[in-house]
Amino acid sequence: MTNPRRPSRLRTILRSSAARRSRRSVDSFLDRLRLRLDRMGLQGYQPNPLVDKGGERAGGTRTRWEQIAPLVADLKVASALDVGCNSGWFTYKLADAGIATIGVESDPPMARTSIYVARRARPRRMGLLFLHVDATTVDMLPEVDCVLFLSVWHHMVRDSGLATADGILASLWGKARKVLVFDTGEAECTAEFHLPEMTPTPRVWLESQLAEVCTGAEIRNLGRHAAFAPDGTKCDRELIALVRS
Questions:
Q1: In 3D, which of 130, 181, 190 has the Cα closest to residue 158?
Q2: Mean pLDDT, residues 127-142 taken together
Q3: For residue 175, what are the contacts with CB-CB under 8 A and spacing of at least 6?
Q4: Using 50, 70 and 90 to split pLDDT, how confident is the model at 59?
Q5: Highest mean pLDDT among 38-47, 104-113, 213-222
Q6: Can you spell out the DSSP letters for the chain?
Q7: Span 172-226, pLDDT tens digits
């Protein structure tokens, strides 16, 4: 009679080191294949973080980082959140700069891409949280030195209204011990986004709005950077840092 507690020969083989190596090889191949599929015709507007190629908004992504990198270095940022991290380009850059960083993403293809990047990042300072950030989940996020909140706020205004989007922004500011970096859609966004009219200029309106919502912030303008409107036409947007006094 077979002992039910005795592992079967098949299970023993599958647990062997050779089998584990083979499984890792298969997983690696499937990961690469899935990455290629996920990035075909989808919203990967950031470059591929591992090879720094591709991406519909690659130029604007890189010029934003040219402003963010010296800022976080000057503020001695040690931890960060990248809310709406897309393929994880900024998350990877922060981690590569020595900053322990969590990317937050709710779109499955983009989240899978970020996980792929995080698994291959060296050293391992990068992680991924699969989460839709809204008024009911924002409090789940940890406090960190730096929060990136890039090209997300206008989607929240569209989905939940201005008051709710501002409430989420205020909560994220409360989690930023040193700095929050922000940009958003502006006049290029269609009526469905329900954005307020940003007069007299987007810079003036946004800086006033941010100062009102994020109390105690020192507002630093980091210039205008290339982006795309919802219809695919080129535009540019303000990049703004909110720094703790």
A1: 190
A2: 97
A3: 81, 141, 142, 143, 144, 147
A4: confident
A5: 213-222
A6: ---TTSPPHHHHHHTSHHHHHHHHHHHHHHHHHHHHHHTSSS---SPBTTTTB--TTHHHHHHHHHHHHHHHHHTT--EEEEET-TTSHHHHHHHHTT-EEEEEE-SHHHHHHHHHHHHH-SS--EEEEE---STTTGGGSPPEEEEEEES-HHHHHHHH-HHHHHHHHHHHHHHEEEEEEEE---TTS-GGG-PPP--S-HHHHHHHHHHHHSTTEEEEEEEEEEEE-TTS-EEEEEEEEEEE-
A7: 999 999 999 999 999 999 999 999 999 999 999 999 999 999 999 999 999 999 9
Structure tokens at 148: 């990136």
* Residue 6, CA distances (Å) to 3, 9, 10, 16, 76 in order: 5, 9, 12, 16, 55
Q: Which two tokens stand for residue 159?
A: 């989905």
pLDDT at 128 over 70: yes
Q: What's this model's pTM, rounded to 2 decimal places? A: 0.83
Other Cβ atoms less than 10 A from the Cβ of 176: the count is 24
Domains, the chain, with CATH or none: 39-244 (3.40.50.150)
Instruction: Decide if 218 contacts 226 (C-beta within 8 A).
Output: no
Sequence length of the chain is 245
